[in-house]
Amino acid sequence: MRLSSFLPRSVATAALFIAVSSCSENLDSSGVCAVLCPPVGGDVQNITLDAVELDTTVNSLSGLGNEPSLILASRGDTLDTRAIIRFDTLPSTFVDATGATQPITSVDSAYILLRVDTLSVKGAGPFTIEAYDVDTTANDTTTAAVLALFRPDRFISSQVLLRTDLKDTTRYYISNAAVLARIQNGAVRFRVGLRVTSTASSQIRLGAAEGGGTPLLFFRATPDSATKPIQVNPLSKTPTDDPIVASHLTDYTIVAKGPPPAPPSVLAVGGWPPRRVYLRFDIPAKIMDSSTVVRATLLLNQISNSALDPTDSVFIIPQLVLAGKVVTDPSKAAQIVADIFRDTVKVRPGNSGPTTVEIARAFDLWRASKPDTLPRAIILKSLSEGNLPLEIRFSSMEDAIALRPRLRISYTSRVPLGVP
Q1: DSSP string covering 140-151
Q2: Contacts from 224-229 at CB under 8 Å and sequence distance 24+?
Q3: Final residue of a structural domain among 257, 292, 320
Q4: Is there a single domain that holds both residue 50 and residue 155?
Q5: Among residues 54, 62, 167, 258, which is most buried (max CB within 10 A)?
Q6: What is the domain extent for residue 220?
Q7: Rounded to an integer, what distance in angstroms lies between the CA atom of residue 390 and that of residue 270?
Q8: Is residue 172 part of a domain?
Q9: pTM confidence score
Q10: Distance of alpha carbon 381 from the chain centroid
Q11: Tens digit of each residue's pLDDT (9 = 90 or more) over 261-297
């Protein structure tokens, strides 16, 4: 797909966004609308429109390894996820106390340093974290090929951790013999798959390379505790023909089992793998060109989803889509977005009924740009996208008329706002 014509437009749109954001007054608040609207534009007109011309659910991230966290989950029939960490550059030599370079013939005190989000841990523990050798010559970008390696003959070691053992930085001790074997057989790479088991439902969120919490491998090349540990950073060298994908596969989460996906006719935000909602509007010209919009509210109908943590809170935020007409695929357009909205919407997966999202700030930008350059479109995303597996569901255009997404607009006659 050619994107060259889109790039200048996106730069211009970004500049326009900065200008509008800096000089426009935020009139989204319903508490002051009745006071401010009459003086600045006369009587306020209120209209509710079936203005959504396209709504769809799209993937939040493109491919494995883009998520900012690694999720270890063992939640019965609901969710089972594993974490993959690749160390494709194991050293074969070390510098001893005299400064001489020596071959590594022993490994001592090997561990993986994990960054743990202690506030999001589910379950009372104890937690058993098992490690498996997931190195393979099969297609290592497919989930099935990697999941097949979580079997007894690939088992490396395990460690039992109490809830109190899970700190911001937690040492997961791994088999010294397994690390040494990978060094001595000439493979010089070590790929580890982690899974958690427990007597009850459990879930642990770990830091990932994309989120700034890269897992690290440490070991000493001699039993001498005074010897400085060797640090090995995660690295993936495959696939060899795509360095970007290889970089993403440094660490990633795979889903062995997940909750049933939302039906195609339902809009879904969040979940695992995470998803977003793309909505494009058809707004009458008399409102867009000849009026000042003082409030615009997206009216949604939430559908209860009790599959996973139905009473936990999820914060949803809209974002403005910047992709022009050259990007025709909503799943790609949903990645080219800008933050212009200040307010989030707090929801719970198990809730149902009316939900409102304020999007008035988008109208300033839409009015100043042609639809070919800046589509009348937004996305809805979870603030915990890629960090938590909770999924919020809404009715789509395919649902009953009373439940479909609609747009409620409060507007007045056109008055100049911002810089004259």
Answers
A1: TTSHHHHHTT-S
A2: 225/109, 226/97, 227/97, 229/109
A3: 257
A4: no
A5: 258
A6: 80-257
A7: 6
A8: yes
A9: 0.84
A10: 9
A11: 899 999 999 998 899 999 999 999 989 988 899 999 9
